[in-house]
Write a structure and sequence with these properties.
This protein has 472 residues and is α/β, with parallel strands linked by helices. The protein has three domains: 205 residues, 3-Layer(bba) Sandwich (FAD/NAD(P)-binding domain), CATH 3.50.50; 107 residues, FAD/NAD(P)-binding domain; 112 residues, 2-Layer Sandwich (Enolase-like, domain 1). It is built from 14 helices and 21 strands. The strands form five sheets. Strands 1, 2, 3, 4, 5, 6 and 16 form a seven-stranded mixed sheet that branches. A five-stranded antiparallel sheet has the order 17-18-21-20-19, sandwiched between helices. A four-stranded parallel sheet has the order 10-9-8-14, covered by helices on one side. Helix 3 crosses helix 4. The radius of gyration is 24 Å and the shape is globular.
């Protein structure tokens, strides 16, 4: 008897194996659903594991090690032979990515999720047709769209030969002169990686500041360090023309109505990403895209097509892996009949520059924008024993709170390990904590986490390690 294996029926089909999709698939399977996950790439883990969060942080770590070793001289530590072996670094990064992507494959297998390699498209609200797969159609009861996003080209110029973040992370070479177009988090992180590897890096940013969504005081600390490490940051500036030359690129940059020409060996385009929603056959469903090409969903991650859910970079909100994963769990739980909803009060944001920026809850920018009244406490790392001990005193923590109730509204940190420090305040916000709660939680000494409790004390008007305003 010949078994027709080309058509599948499943309770849940998940399109995309990134941090949204694979997490959703595992949760749905654990809740008793039959799950098929469709992924068109050879490796699982999506952009995050293969060409985003993980490879970038692996390189950033190595560049930070070099920097730390270089600065350790003042602490009496000298290295005679500090050099970067590019091939070994590339191999290390690939090993990290491989281990993690294989780990995801192992998790899916153990949970009984069937992974199908191929590209999926909707033909109606219950059926997917697959390209490049052994399976040709999948009939589902529920589907979760987790197809993520891809790089957006620089508008108005030829993008021929430009690096995207993917090529930059591929590290085929370390160009002598690198232009980064875009001073958002991806541009700044990769710009600093290449500066650390030895490139002369220029960043061009259209807006009046780099990292425009973060509070200015946080960004100022990073910008100061960038000015030491990068060749130039050109603000309010726009790349208007880009020509290939024998040496690389001739780039015309416009600022204040004046255009200047600059030679570069390589150009990295980092002006944003666009959702992978245009080739999904959504016209065969009731799902409509918004003006940004994103899929609108409700708090349960359900689209306007009741059988279909959408999560991660394809839906509105900050495009980050941890948000995608949380939405993945919510969608899977809703499908399994649980009363889940996206009730996370905040999605923390981290910029892995040197030093790092991290913030959670309300920013001052948002508070001012929305007319929300707040009190603020700021504590400099320079006043912290641990920061002194590790020789990293640049930066601060700040806490925003409601003036009448003391309820915590937001926390921002700029400094070493800010990415780790922001988890505690995120939990505090989720639990509706107040300044009092932060002050009463004993933060271990000597750690950088003390800066958060100290900032809360400043906000409450009772600091210990910095002086309160003088009494008249
Ligand atoms: P993705 O990870 O994009 O996964 C979608 C998957 O769907 C892909 O594997 C794709 O191949 C597959 N797919 C698409 N269409 C189809 C189809 N029709 N059929 C089958 N498969 C399909 N986020 C952080 O939180 N922290 C960071 O430090 C961070 N750093 C980043 C650094 C860089 C350089 C980049 C580019 C991104 C970074 N991000 C970071 C963002 C993060 O990678 C994304 O927010 C996250 O990957 C989104 O997850 P997702 O599951 O929605 O989609």
């Amino acid at each position: 008897m010949v078994v027709d294996n080309s058509n599948r029926k499943t309770e849940v089909a998940v399109i995309g194996g990134g941090p949204g999709g694979y997490v959703a698939a595992i949760r749905a399977a654990d809740l008793g659903k039959t799950v098929v996950l469709i992924e068109e790439r050879d490796r699982l883990g999506g952009v995050c594991l293969t060409e985003g969060c993980i490879p970038s942080k692996t390189l950033i770590h190595v560049v930070e090690l070099v920097d730390a070793a270089t600065h350790a001289k003042k602490m009496g530590l000298g290295f005679a032979d500090l050099k970067i072996d590019l091939d070994a670094l590339r191999a290390w990064k690939e090993r990290v990515v491989d281990d993690l992507t294989q780990g995801v494959a192992g998790l899916l297998k153990r949970r009984g999720v069937e992974v199908v390699k191929g590209r999926a498209r909707f033909t109606d609200n219950r059926t997917l047709v697959l390209k490049g797969a052994d399976v040709s159609t999948i009939e589902f009861e529920n589907c979760i769209i987790a197809t993520g996003s891809r790089v957006r080209g620089v508008p108005g110029i030829s993008n021929d030969g430009l690096w995207t973040s993917t090529e930059a992370l591929g590290m085929s070479e370390v160009p002598e002169r690198l232009l980064v177009i875009g001073g958002g988090y991806i541009g700044m992180e990769l710009g600093m990686v290449y500066a650390g590897l030895g490139s002369n890096v220029t960043v061009v940013e259209f807006m009046p500041s780099i990292l425009i969504t973060a509070d200015k005081d946080l960004v100022d600390v990073v910008a100061k360090n960038c000015r030491r490490k990068l060749d130039a940051i050109m603000l309010n500036s726009k790349v208007v023309e880009l020509k290939r030359t024998n040496a690389g690129f001739d780039v015309a940059i416009e600022r204040d109505g004046k255009t200047t020409h600059h030679p570069f060996d390589q150009v990295l385009a980092a002006v944003g990403r666009q959702p992978n929603t245009d080739d999904l056959g959504l016209e065969n469903t009731k799902i409509k895209l918004n003006a940004q090409g994103l899929i609108e969903t409700d708090k349960q991650c359900r689209t306007t097509e009741p059988s279909v859910f959408a999560i991660g970079d394809v839906v509105p909100g900050i495009a980050l892996a941890h948000k995608a994963s949380r939405e993945g769990k919510v969608a899977a739980e809703v499908i399994a009949g649980h009363g889940a909803s996206f009730d996370s009060v905040t999605v923390p944001a981290v910029v892995f520059t040197d030093p790092e920026i991290a913030y959670t809850g309300l920013t001052e920018l948002e508070a001012k924008d929305q007319g929300i009244d707040y009190i603020k406490g700021k504590f400099p790392l320079a006043a912290l024993g641990r920061a002194r001990a590790i020789g990293r005193t640049e930066g601060f923590a700040k806490v925003l709170a409601d003036p009448s109730s003391g309820a915590l509204l937001g926390v921002g940190v700029v400094g070493p390990h800010a990415s780790e420090l922001i988890a505690g305040p995120t939990l505090a916000l989720q639990m509706g904590a107040t300044l009092e709660n932060l002050m009463a939680s004993i933060h271990p000494h000597p750690t950088l986490s003390e800066s958060i409790a100290e900032a809360a004390e400043v906000a409450a008007g009772s600091p210990i390690h910095i002086n309160p305003p003088r009494k008249r």
